[in-house]
Amino acid sequence: MQVETNKIRVMVVDDSAVMRKLISNLLARDSEIEVIATAIDGDFALSKIEQLKPDVVTLDVEMPRMDGLTTLDHIVSKHRLPVVMLSSFTERGAASTMKALEMGAVDFVCKPKVASQIGSLADELISKVKAAARSDVAALNLRLGNPVGKKAKWPAPATPVDKVQILAIGASSGGPHALRYLLPRLPADFAAPIVIVQHLPEAFTLMLARWLDEMCAIDVKEAAAGELALPGRAYIAPAKMHMKVKKTASGVEIQIEQGATVNGHMPSVDVLFNSVAVSFGASATAVILTGMGSDGATGLGEIRRVGGHTIAQDEESCSVFGMPRVAIQRGCAKHVLALTEIAPHLISRIGRSGFAEKSYA
Whole-model pTM? Predict the structure, then answer.
Protein backbone atom coordinates (compact mmCIF):
# COMPACT_ATOMS: atom_id res chain seq x y z
CA MET A 1 0.00 0.00 0.00
CA GLN A 2 1.39 3.36 -1.02
CA VAL A 3 1.29 6.11 1.60
CA GLU A 4 0.51 9.53 0.22
CA THR A 5 2.44 12.51 1.51
CA ASN A 6 1.07 16.03 1.61
CA LYS A 7 3.54 17.95 -0.47
CA ILE A 8 3.70 21.74 -0.59
CA ARG A 9 2.02 22.66 -3.88
CA VAL A 10 3.76 25.64 -5.50
CA MET A 11 2.96 27.85 -8.46
CA VAL A 12 5.88 29.66 -10.10
CA VAL A 13 5.06 33.00 -11.76
CA ASP A 14 7.73 34.65 -13.93
CA ASP A 15 7.67 36.21 -17.38
CA SER A 16 10.97 34.51 -18.31
CA ALA A 17 10.66 30.92 -19.56
CA VAL A 18 14.25 30.29 -18.47
CA MET A 19 13.60 31.49 -14.92
CA ARG A 20 10.36 29.53 -14.66
CA LYS A 21 12.25 26.36 -15.59
CA LEU A 22 15.21 27.07 -13.30
CA ILE A 23 13.05 27.93 -10.28
CA SER A 24 10.85 24.88 -10.85
CA ASN A 25 13.91 22.62 -11.06
CA LEU A 26 15.36 24.06 -7.87
CA LEU A 27 12.16 23.50 -5.93
CA ALA A 28 11.84 19.98 -7.34
CA ARG A 29 15.09 19.07 -5.55
CA ASP A 30 13.14 18.89 -2.30
CA SER A 31 10.90 15.86 -1.84
CA GLU A 32 8.40 17.89 0.21
CA ILE A 33 7.69 20.37 -2.61
CA GLU A 34 5.74 19.88 -5.84
CA VAL A 35 5.55 22.55 -8.54
CA ILE A 36 2.00 22.15 -9.83
CA ALA A 37 1.97 24.96 -12.39
CA THR A 38 3.80 27.94 -13.85
CA ALA A 39 2.46 31.21 -15.25
CA ILE A 40 3.97 33.88 -17.49
CA ASP A 41 2.26 36.85 -15.83
CA GLY A 42 -0.30 37.93 -13.28
CA ASP A 43 -3.35 37.40 -15.48
CA PHE A 44 -2.48 33.77 -16.14
CA ALA A 45 -1.47 33.26 -12.51
CA LEU A 46 -4.80 34.46 -11.11
CA SER A 47 -6.82 32.22 -13.41
CA LYS A 48 -4.69 29.20 -12.49
CA ILE A 49 -4.89 29.97 -8.77
CA GLU A 50 -8.68 29.81 -8.98
CA GLN A 51 -8.47 26.41 -10.64
CA LEU A 52 -5.51 24.73 -8.87
CA LYS A 53 -5.45 26.36 -5.42
CA PRO A 54 -1.70 26.14 -4.69
CA ASP A 55 -0.27 26.33 -1.17
CA VAL A 56 2.44 28.89 -2.05
CA VAL A 57 3.11 31.22 -4.98
CA THR A 58 6.55 32.46 -6.04
CA LEU A 59 6.02 35.75 -7.83
CA ASP A 60 8.34 37.84 -9.99
CA VAL A 61 8.27 41.54 -9.09
CA GLU A 62 8.65 42.88 -12.63
CA MET A 63 6.34 41.44 -15.30
CA PRO A 64 4.49 42.78 -18.36
CA ARG A 65 0.72 43.27 -18.47
CA MET A 66 -0.13 42.71 -14.79
CA ASP A 67 2.98 43.41 -12.69
CA GLY A 68 4.00 41.60 -9.52
CA LEU A 69 2.61 44.12 -7.04
CA THR A 70 -0.80 44.25 -8.70
CA THR A 71 -0.88 40.45 -8.83
CA LEU A 72 0.18 40.26 -5.19
CA ASP A 73 -2.66 42.53 -4.14
CA HIS A 74 -5.18 40.17 -5.76
CA ILE A 75 -3.58 37.04 -4.30
CA VAL A 76 -3.36 38.36 -0.75
CA SER A 77 -6.74 40.09 -0.63
CA LYS A 78 -8.83 37.49 -2.43
CA HIS A 79 -7.06 34.16 -1.96
CA ARG A 80 -5.12 34.69 1.30
CA LEU A 81 -2.20 32.69 -0.14
CA PRO A 82 1.40 33.05 1.06
CA VAL A 83 3.64 34.64 -1.58
CA VAL A 84 7.43 34.65 -1.88
CA MET A 85 8.60 37.47 -4.16
CA LEU A 86 11.46 37.06 -6.65
CA SER A 87 13.30 40.37 -6.95
CA SER A 88 16.22 41.83 -8.88
CA PHE A 89 19.45 43.22 -7.37
CA THR A 90 18.51 46.83 -8.14
CA GLU A 91 17.36 49.87 -6.19
CA ARG A 92 14.05 49.71 -8.06
CA GLY A 93 13.76 46.01 -7.24
CA ALA A 94 14.52 46.71 -3.57
CA ALA A 95 11.89 49.45 -3.37
CA SER A 96 9.27 47.22 -5.00
CA THR A 97 10.16 44.37 -2.66
CA MET A 98 9.73 46.52 0.46
CA LYS A 99 6.35 47.57 -0.91
CA ALA A 100 5.47 43.91 -1.49
CA LEU A 101 6.31 43.05 2.12
CA GLU A 102 4.12 45.92 3.29
CA MET A 103 1.28 44.58 1.12
CA GLY A 104 1.52 41.13 2.67
CA ALA A 105 4.19 39.08 0.86
CA VAL A 106 5.65 36.58 3.30
CA ASP A 107 9.28 36.87 2.14
CA PHE A 108 11.50 37.41 -0.88
CA VAL A 109 14.50 35.97 -2.71
CA CYS A 110 16.83 37.94 -4.97
CA LYS A 111 17.41 36.48 -8.41
CA PRO A 112 21.09 36.53 -9.46
CA LYS A 113 22.13 38.85 -12.25
CA VAL A 114 23.10 35.79 -14.33
CA ALA A 115 20.44 33.09 -14.61
CA SER A 116 23.05 30.31 -14.59
CA GLN A 117 23.96 31.25 -10.99
CA ILE A 118 20.47 30.67 -9.58
CA GLY A 119 21.49 27.24 -8.30
CA SER A 120 23.31 28.94 -5.44
CA LEU A 121 19.92 30.10 -4.11
CA ALA A 122 18.44 26.61 -3.83
CA ASP A 123 18.65 26.28 -0.04
CA GLU A 124 17.32 29.79 0.56
CA LEU A 125 14.44 29.42 -1.88
CA ILE A 126 13.39 26.01 -0.57
CA SER A 127 13.60 27.16 3.05
CA LYS A 128 11.51 30.26 2.39
CA VAL A 129 8.87 28.36 0.42
CA LYS A 130 8.54 25.88 3.29
CA ALA A 131 8.32 28.71 5.81
CA ALA A 132 5.70 30.42 3.65
CA ALA A 133 3.61 27.24 3.57
CA ARG A 134 3.51 27.28 7.38
CA SER A 135 2.63 30.96 7.64
CA ASP A 136 -0.75 32.44 8.47
CA VAL A 137 -1.28 35.21 5.90
CA ALA A 138 -4.35 36.65 7.64
CA ALA A 139 -2.49 36.83 10.97
CA LEU A 140 0.55 38.36 9.28
CA ASN A 141 -1.49 41.13 7.68
CA LEU A 142 -3.26 41.82 10.96
CA ARG A 143 0.11 42.14 12.71
CA LEU A 144 1.54 44.51 10.12
CA GLY A 145 -1.06 47.26 10.43
CA ASN A 146 -0.27 48.42 13.95
CA PRO A 147 2.41 51.12 14.26
CA VAL A 148 2.73 52.79 17.65
CA GLY A 149 2.79 56.48 16.99
CA LYS A 150 3.86 59.50 15.01
CA LYS A 151 7.47 60.43 14.44
CA ALA A 152 8.75 62.88 17.02
CA LYS A 153 12.17 64.45 17.42
CA TRP A 154 13.53 64.16 20.95
CA PRO A 155 16.98 65.42 21.95
CA ALA A 156 19.30 62.59 22.95
CA PRO A 157 19.70 62.42 26.74
CA ALA A 158 23.08 63.47 28.09
CA THR A 159 23.94 60.06 29.53
CA PRO A 160 27.56 59.55 30.66
CA VAL A 161 29.35 57.20 28.27
CA ASP A 162 30.02 54.66 31.00
CA LYS A 163 26.27 54.50 31.76
CA VAL A 164 25.05 54.09 28.18
CA GLN A 165 23.12 50.93 27.35
CA ILE A 166 22.82 49.38 23.90
CA LEU A 167 20.37 47.11 22.10
CA ALA A 168 21.79 44.87 19.35
CA ILE A 169 19.55 42.86 17.02
CA GLY A 170 20.42 40.16 14.50
CA ALA A 171 18.09 38.70 11.86
CA SER A 172 18.05 36.90 8.53
CA SER A 173 15.20 35.14 6.66
CA GLY A 174 11.89 36.60 7.81
CA GLY A 175 13.72 39.41 9.55
CA PRO A 176 12.16 42.35 7.68
CA HIS A 177 8.69 41.31 8.88
CA ALA A 178 9.97 40.67 12.41
CA LEU A 179 11.60 44.12 12.50
CA ARG A 180 8.42 45.55 10.95
CA TYR A 181 6.57 44.27 13.99
CA LEU A 182 9.17 44.99 16.68
CA LEU A 183 10.60 48.44 15.94
CA PRO A 184 7.29 50.37 15.64
CA ARG A 185 6.52 49.21 19.17
CA LEU A 186 9.55 50.97 20.65
CA PRO A 187 8.91 54.55 21.84
CA ALA A 188 10.67 57.62 20.46
CA ASP A 189 12.40 58.13 23.81
CA PHE A 190 13.72 54.57 24.04
CA ALA A 191 16.74 54.88 26.31
CA ALA A 192 19.35 53.04 24.22
CA PRO A 193 20.76 53.17 20.70
CA ILE A 194 19.72 50.20 18.55
CA VAL A 195 22.18 48.53 16.16
CA ILE A 196 20.90 45.94 13.69
CA VAL A 197 22.39 43.39 11.34
CA GLN A 198 19.83 42.06 8.87
CA HIS A 199 21.19 39.77 6.14
CA LEU A 200 20.22 41.45 2.86
CA PRO A 201 21.78 42.06 -0.56
CA GLU A 202 23.04 45.42 -1.80
CA ALA A 203 20.48 48.23 -2.20
CA PHE A 204 18.08 46.45 0.15
CA THR A 205 19.44 47.67 3.49
CA LEU A 206 18.92 51.32 2.57
CA MET A 207 15.38 50.58 1.38
CA LEU A 208 14.68 48.56 4.51
CA ALA A 209 15.83 51.47 6.69
CA ARG A 210 13.61 53.93 4.81
CA TRP A 211 10.66 51.53 4.94
CA LEU A 212 10.99 51.02 8.69
CA ASP A 213 11.63 54.71 9.38
CA GLU A 214 8.28 55.67 7.86
CA MET A 215 6.36 53.49 10.32
CA CYS A 216 8.38 53.94 13.53
CA ALA A 217 8.36 56.53 16.29
CA ILE A 218 12.13 56.04 16.56
CA ASP A 219 14.43 57.15 13.74
CA VAL A 220 15.75 54.31 11.55
CA LYS A 221 18.65 54.73 9.11
CA GLU A 222 21.38 52.85 7.32
CA ALA A 223 24.52 53.15 9.45
CA ALA A 224 27.49 55.25 8.37
CA ALA A 225 31.11 54.85 9.42
CA GLY A 226 32.15 57.05 12.32
CA GLU A 227 28.74 58.33 13.34
CA LEU A 228 27.68 58.29 16.97
CA ALA A 229 24.81 55.98 17.87
CA LEU A 230 22.17 57.85 19.88
CA PRO A 231 19.35 56.61 22.12
CA GLY A 232 16.02 56.28 20.36
CA ARG A 233 17.69 55.73 16.98
CA ALA A 234 18.15 52.48 15.06
CA TYR A 235 21.11 51.85 12.75
CA ILE A 236 21.05 49.08 10.13
CA ALA A 237 24.37 47.68 8.89
CA PRO A 238 24.88 48.32 5.16
CA ALA A 239 25.08 45.29 2.87
CA LYS A 240 28.52 43.81 2.19
CA MET A 241 30.03 45.62 5.21
CA HIS A 242 30.60 44.48 8.78
CA MET A 243 29.35 46.76 11.55
CA LYS A 244 30.87 47.12 15.02
CA VAL A 245 30.34 49.52 17.91
CA LYS A 246 32.92 51.01 20.26
CA LYS A 247 32.69 53.28 23.29
CA THR A 248 34.79 56.42 22.92
CA ALA A 249 35.09 59.68 24.86
CA SER A 250 32.57 61.19 22.41
CA GLY A 251 30.00 58.44 22.72
CA VAL A 252 29.09 55.17 20.99
CA GLU A 253 30.93 55.11 17.67
CA ILE A 254 29.74 52.97 14.77
CA GLN A 255 32.51 51.30 12.79
CA ILE A 256 31.85 50.07 9.25
CA GLU A 257 34.46 47.93 7.54
CA GLN A 258 34.95 45.34 4.85
CA GLY A 259 36.51 41.98 5.56
CA ALA A 260 36.09 38.27 5.15
CA THR A 261 32.63 36.81 5.51
CA VAL A 262 31.80 35.32 8.91
CA ASN A 263 29.42 32.35 8.96
CA GLY A 264 29.05 33.06 5.24
CA HIS A 265 27.78 36.60 5.83
CA MET A 266 28.91 40.20 5.58
CA PRO A 267 27.53 41.91 7.59
CA SER A 268 27.66 39.22 10.25
CA VAL A 269 25.59 39.23 13.43
CA ASP A 270 28.49 37.60 15.28
CA VAL A 271 30.83 40.47 14.36
CA LEU A 272 28.38 43.03 15.75
CA PHE A 273 27.53 41.03 18.87
CA ASN A 274 31.20 40.37 19.70
CA SER A 275 31.98 44.10 19.54
CA VAL A 276 28.96 44.82 21.75
CA ALA A 277 30.21 42.31 24.32
CA VAL A 278 33.65 43.95 24.43
CA SER A 279 32.44 47.55 24.74
CA PHE A 280 29.26 47.18 26.80
CA GLY A 281 29.44 44.01 28.89
CA ALA A 282 26.53 43.89 31.33
CA SER A 283 25.05 47.09 29.82
CA ALA A 284 24.24 45.22 26.59
CA THR A 285 20.97 43.68 25.51
CA ALA A 286 20.91 41.49 22.40
CA VAL A 287 18.10 39.87 20.46
CA ILE A 288 18.40 37.16 17.82
CA LEU A 289 15.40 36.97 15.52
CA THR A 290 14.22 34.62 12.79
CA GLY A 291 16.74 33.41 10.23
CA MET A 292 18.55 30.54 8.52
CA GLY A 293 21.87 29.20 9.76
CA SER A 294 23.77 29.91 12.96
CA ASP A 295 25.09 33.48 12.60
CA GLY A 296 24.81 35.36 15.88
CA ALA A 297 24.75 32.40 18.28
CA THR A 298 28.43 32.69 19.23
CA GLY A 299 28.20 36.45 19.72
CA LEU A 300 25.00 36.12 21.73
CA GLY A 301 26.80 33.63 23.97
CA GLU A 302 29.67 36.07 24.44
CA ILE A 303 27.27 38.84 25.48
CA ARG A 304 25.67 36.51 28.01
CA ARG A 305 29.10 35.43 29.29
CA VAL A 306 30.05 39.03 30.14
CA GLY A 307 26.77 39.64 31.95
CA GLY A 308 24.62 41.07 29.15
CA HIS A 309 20.93 40.34 28.65
CA THR A 310 20.19 37.92 25.79
CA ILE A 311 16.92 37.05 24.03
CA ALA A 312 16.00 34.62 21.26
CA GLN A 313 12.73 34.61 19.33
CA ASP A 314 10.69 31.48 19.94
CA GLU A 315 10.00 28.82 17.33
CA GLU A 316 6.29 29.44 16.94
CA SER A 317 6.69 33.10 15.96
CA CYS A 318 9.76 32.58 13.72
CA SER A 319 9.49 32.37 9.95
CA VAL A 320 12.68 30.29 9.95
CA PHE A 321 13.77 28.82 13.29
CA GLY A 322 17.47 28.52 12.47
CA MET A 323 19.57 31.20 14.15
CA PRO A 324 17.43 31.33 17.31
CA ARG A 325 17.36 27.54 17.55
CA VAL A 326 21.16 27.29 17.53
CA ALA A 327 21.47 30.07 20.12
CA ILE A 328 18.92 28.38 22.38
CA GLN A 329 20.51 24.94 22.04
CA ARG A 330 23.91 26.36 22.99
CA GLY A 331 22.50 28.06 26.07
CA CYS A 332 23.25 31.55 24.75
CA ALA A 333 19.74 32.97 25.27
CA LYS A 334 18.65 33.92 28.77
CA HIS A 335 15.07 34.42 27.57
CA VAL A 336 13.10 32.79 24.75
CA LEU A 337 10.20 35.06 23.81
CA ALA A 338 7.46 35.27 21.21
CA LEU A 339 7.79 38.20 18.83
CA THR A 340 4.80 39.86 20.51
CA GLU A 341 6.59 39.74 23.88
CA ILE A 342 9.93 41.22 22.88
CA ALA A 343 9.15 44.97 22.68
CA PRO A 344 7.43 45.15 26.11
CA HIS A 345 10.31 43.17 27.59
CA LEU A 346 12.88 45.56 26.07
CA ILE A 347 11.04 48.67 27.26
CA SER A 348 10.77 47.22 30.74
CA ARG A 349 14.47 46.35 30.87
CA ILE A 350 16.07 49.30 29.08
CA GLY A 351 13.53 52.00 29.89
CA ARG A 352 12.69 55.39 28.45
CA SER A 353 14.56 58.67 28.69
CA GLY A 354 11.40 60.60 29.59
CA PHE A 355 11.72 63.15 26.78
CA ALA A 356 8.45 62.01 25.21
CA GLU A 357 6.62 63.45 28.19
CA LYS A 358 7.90 66.95 27.43
CA SER A 359 7.29 69.39 24.63
CA TYR A 360 10.01 70.70 22.34
CA ALA A 361 9.92 73.31 19.63
Answer: 0.89
